[in-house]
Structure formats: structure tokens, C-alpha cells
Design goal:
eight-stranded mixed sheet; three-stranded antiparallel sheet; 9 helices; 11 strands; globular; Carboxylest/Gibb_receptor; Lipase_GDXG_put_SER_AS; Probable carboxylesterase 6; AB_hydrolase_fold
């Protein structure tokens, strides 16, 4: 598998207003956009290489998907045992970060996805898609679709592909990545992918929005203890949507369609203390429980599974969520 250059990270420089003009938008401490279009991102999470503890039993490497757009992915492969006879499902994962920050090489995602691969006995391809505002939506959706198309081309050319059941692909992601997984699934619903098949989606606190405020948005507001606040949520949408669009744009919403082809199996993971709770709950309302599974995790907030590992409740709840994802993929029923 080929290596690739990981994400370019810069540190916010307070003196750059002299070079690039005034700051026109920002999420404090995370991203700053200048009048001339220059973008700076803070290195809030370290980027790491592909190494993993041997005892985890997961191999990891980076693969190039599109040299032209510099889209790449990090691949996690559970080490096969002599008793393993069947091929393994594949999770195509999209990281969070408001469409504007984040990387498949962030240490928090590297650790979480390695644990998920080991727990669920799945291959995982974590896509490092293009970021806004340099590449506003639908660029990330296009990168997701292209990653699936790339899979169809690569399935006969790589060693790891021999372990993969391409008829059992799950699209997954958290926060903005959950939004991407959902919209990529909708875009692929009418596309002929055989022998590939998208079996389901796994949406972890998916990032949706609207102009009207929900009760959970009002409750969390701009509480600085929350990873996602109302002001940062609004800023992520301003930076990622097409020019002139507001939060009623279709990219901010779950896809509504009467077509049964889009009604694939879906697991929605909701955090009780998350600003997005109401929107996540709403997307499941009125749906067939056999098609859409909803799990609410008590006492935790946004991105608890990747940013809350120092807190015991977040750690315990993450283990619970890993169990639910495993059960969803492998068709057994731990849900109460």
C-alpha cells in the first residue's frame, strides 16, 4: 500500500492580519479565515502515523485514493487467525470537525477506529476528504462517493481486498462525518455498484442544522464546557456551505425521499448532552425500528467517544457504543 503525505497543519499566527488582511470568520482556537481567503487551523489534536500496539491485533497503513485532489485514507485490518474462514465487512468512515478541520491521522480517530476494528472484526477505511472553506460542500460528499468508486477498482489489486466482503459495506462517521456518510449513502442509492453493496449507515451524533433553534440547541447554547456550541455550529455551517446558502440548505438536513432504495439499515448514536440531540432524535421519528436503530447515551456530550477518554463516563459509554456498533454490523441484538 502506498504512503501519502498527511494533512497539512498550521498554527494560528496572531501577526497574519498584517499579511492577509482582517479576519472575516473564525471558530476561536480552531480555525481562522482571512479576507484574502487564507485559512489557518490550530493543531488541537496531534497527527500520528500508522503504528499501533501489537496486542491490539490490527494492522494499519495509508492508501492514496486520488492524487489530483490529495484525498487519501487510513486502512485498519484485523489480523486474521487460523480459525477465521469468512471475509470481513468494511466500514468506510468519515471523521468529524465541522467539515473544516480534522484528519484521518488525528490521534483520537486513530485510536478509536483501531479499537472499533478489533472489536467488530471489520476492515475500516477512514477517508481523509477535502476540507472547507477551501473546498465547500459538496466536495466532501464527492470525495466519499469517489472513495466507494475507487474501492470497486482496487478490490482485485490489493492484498487487504482479499479479506474484504465487498457485499457488506457500511458508511459511518461522527458529527460532520455522520452528515457526510448519510449524504454519500443517498447519492449512491441509485448508482450501480455491483459487486459492491452498501448494507447500512452508522451515524454518530450526525451534524445537521436549521435556522430555527431546537430545545437542545437552546439548552446547550454557548456553554464553554461543550465541544460543540451554538456559535461554533453556526460558524461551521457558514464556512462549509455554498456561498449565499443558509442553514435551510439541503446539505444541513437528512435526505427525505419516498424511494425505498434509500431506506437502508441505519444506526443513529445520540448523546444526551449534545447540542444536536433533538435533530438526531427527529431524524429517527416515524421510522421503522427494524430499519433505523436509535441509541441515546446518557450523561455524555458531543464527540465523547474521541475527545472524552480522560473522563470515566465517556470511556465506559464509548465501550458501550462499540458494542452497539458491533451488534448492528453483525446482526445480534443487545439493544434494550
Amino acid at each position: 500500500m502506498g504512503a501519502t503525505t498527511l494533512t497539512h497543519v498550521t498554527t494560528i499566527n496572531p501577526n497574519n492580519t498584517n499579511i492577509h488582511g482582517p479576519v472575516v470568520d473564525e471558530v476561536e482556537g480552531l480555525i481562522r479565515v482571512y479576507k484574502d481567503g487564507h485559512v489557518e487551523r490550530s493543531q488541537v489534536v496531534p497527527c500520528v502515523g500508522t503504528s499501533l500496539p501489537l496486542e491490539l491485533g490490527v494492522a494499519c497503513s495509508d492508501i492514496v485514493i486520488d492524487k489530483l485532489t490529495n484525498v487519501w485514507a487510513r486502512l485498519y485490518v484485523p489480523m486474521m487467525t487460523t480459525t477465521t474462514v469468512s471475509k470481513l465487512p468494511l466500514i468506510v468512515y468519515f471523521h468529524g470537525g465541522g467539515f473544516c478541520i480534522g484528519s484521518a491521522s488525528w490521534s483520537c480517530y486513530h485510536e478509536f477506529l483501531a479499537r472499533l476494528s478489533a472489536r467488530s472484526r471489520c476492515l475500516i477505511m477512514s477517508v481523509n476528504y477535502r476540507l472547507a472553506p477551501e473546498n465547500p460542500l459538496p466536495a466532501a460528499y464527492e470525495d466519499g462517493v469517489n472513495a466507494i468508486i475507487w474501492l470497486n477498482k482496487a478490490r482485485n489489486d490489493t492484498l487487504w481486498a482479499k479479506l474484504c466482503d465487498f457485499g457488506r459495506i457500511f458508511l459511518a462517521g461522527d458529527s460532520a462525518g455522520g452528515n457526510i456518510a448519510h449524504h454519500v449513502a443517498a447519492r449512491l442509492a441509485s448508482t450501480e455498484l455491483k459487486p459492491l453493496e452498501i448494507e447500512g449507515t452508522i451515524l454518530i451524533q450526525p451534524f445537521f442544522g436549521g435556522e430555527a433553534r431546537t430545545e437542545s440547541e437552546k439548552r446547550v447554547g454557548n456553554n464553554k464546557r461543550s465541544v460543540l456550541t451554538l456559535s461554533s455550529s453556526d460558524a461551521w455551517w457558514r464556512l462549509s456551505l455554498p456561498r449565499g446558502a443558509n442553514r435551510e440548505h439541503p446539505y444541513c438536513k437528512p435526505v427525505k425521499t419516498k424511494s425505498s432504495t434509500v431506506m437502508m439499515r441505519t444506526l443513529v448514536c445520540v448523546a444526551e448532552m449534545d447540542l444536536l440531540m433533538d435533530r438526531n432524535m427527529e431524524m429517527c421519528d416515524g421510522s421503522n425500528e427494524e430499519v433505523i436503530k436509535r441509541v441515546v447515551y446518557k450523561g455524555v456530550g458531543h464527540a465523547f467517544h474521541v475527545l472524552g477518554k480522560s473522563h470515566q463516563l465517556a470511556h465506559t459509554t464509548t465501550l458501550e457504543m462499540l458494542c452497539h456498533i458491533d451488534a448492528f454490523i453483525n446482526h445480534y441484538e443487545p439493544f434494550n
